[in-house]
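This part of the workshop introduces the protein records we will be handling. As an example, a complete record with its sequence and its structure tokens follows.
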Amino acid sequence: MTNTTKKLATKKGKVVSDSMDKTIVVAVQSLKTHPKYLKKYRSTKNYKVHDAENKHKVGEVVEFTECRPMSKDKNHIVI
């Protein structure tokens, strides 16, 4: 039996809020293409990320990955 490891998705984004305890909100921007008009547009998605030491501040760029769910909305952790 082989021991396989699942590769978890990592994302990079900018911290937009750090007011919660041990949690930061990170905005990730992506470039999408409209299916009909083929025009490119920017899309932003916010992720709640676990930051155990409260060391990341607003404006920093952080890298984070998936983990087990820590709360209703929080299932990512800072690398």
In short: The first strand starts at residue 10 and ends at 17. The domain at 10-78 is CATH 2.40.50.140 (OB fold (Dihydrolipoamide Acetyltransferase, E2P)).
